[in-house]
Design a protein that fits this description.
With 305 residues, this protein is mostly beta strands. The protein contains four helices and 18 strands. The two termini are 23 Å apart.
Length: 305
């Protein structure tokens, strides 16, 4: 079945496959293990037959005969000269055979009659438009709840970084994917952010009072509240996300700091109103990945992806 982002013309498909072969474009083949988890192997397109493709896969210690019969999805990219950008294509195929080459193994795939435009959802990084992000807040994990000394009730601390900072441009989302987010904080933000906004009656959490983001280092843990727009339904999606800082980069002139955050847990409100956290597997929060993919397709249709 084709979609508005499908290619079905045989000559176009032949030309793209030939470009991939001539330019030694990397083929990514997404497989599924017996227990259901996904993994990838990479290779190069070596032969284009009338009904089959041969992809030479490297790094295998034994002939993967057990993969024969499994339906996989293959991804590759080639340069689009008119757009002057790399375009990703993909197609599903059963593995028809596995044969030994001189140094590695060839996977024999069914030649596609349809190519879909688009890369893996978990791989897409989207530079969000100004109206994609409706709200954003951030806390240091373990320091987002305080307990009142008199009543014993727990309450959510005000975020270290909140919607006001976002609206004033002191924090910006550089890109977002199904597995992580890249954030920039301005130098001005560190002068304005307050790390102590709780009542004197509040008991600080065991981990201590929150620290300014300026002193956070790699592997520091954070909690993010993100509100994303949904244009089709004129509504929004809310995401609670836990993550750890994977890198930190500072501009020594402007004092702006860029953080990369890898998501580790995805939270949803349970019937009692509490947040139930689920570990993120394979860097892929499916609901977030679907939102990113939809924005990507919208941009591609408008010719700006």
């Amino acid at each position: 079945m084709s979609t508005p982002l499908s290619l079905t013309d045989p000559n176009t498909i032949q030309g793209l496959l030939q470009d991939a072969k001539d330019l030694r474009a990397k083929f990514i083949i997404a497989l599924t293990r017996e227990q259901g988890s996904r993994f990838d192997v990479t290779g190069l397109l070596r032969e284009i037959g009338d009904s089959t493709l041969a992809v030479e896969v490297s790094g295998l210690s034994a002939n993967p005969r057990s993969w024969v019969g499994q339906v996989v999805r293959c991804y590759f990219k080639v340069r689009d000269r008119s757009r002057k950008s790399d375009i990703f294509y993909n197609f599903p195929s059963p593995i028809l055979d596995s044969t030994a080459s001189r140094s590695d193994y060839n996977l024999v795939l069914k030649r596609p009659v349809v190519l879909e435009i688009g890369q893996r959802r978990s791989s897409i990084r989207l530079d969000p438009a100004s109206d994609d992000i409706l709200n954003f807040s951030l806390w240091e994990e373990g320091k987002m709840v305080a307990r009142n000394a008199e009543t014993g009730q727990a309450k959510l601390r005000p975020p270290l970084i909140g919607g006001q900072h976002f609206e004033e441009g002191e924090v910006s989302i550089l890109d977002i994917s199904a597995g992580g987010i890249r954030i920039r904080f301005t130098g001005k933000l560190f002068k304005n952010v307050s790390v102590e906004s709780s009542s004197k009656k509040d008991i600080s959490p065991a981990q201590g009072k929150p620290e300014s983001p300026s002193v956070w280092t790699k592997r520091a843990k954070v909690v993010i509240w993100l509100v994303l727009s949904e244009r089709v339904k004129n509504s929004h999606q809310i995401f609670w996300l836990k993550g750890r800082i994977s890198y930190k980069r500072e501009d020594y002139q402007s004092k702006d700091v860029e953080f990369g955050v890898e998501f580790t847990q995805h939270g949803k409100n349970d019937p009692s109103g509490k947040i139930a956290w689920t570990p993120v597997r394979e860097n892929d929060i499916q609901e977030l990945g679907a939102w990113v993919y939809q924005r990507y397709l919208e941009r591609f249709r408008r010719g700006i992806a």
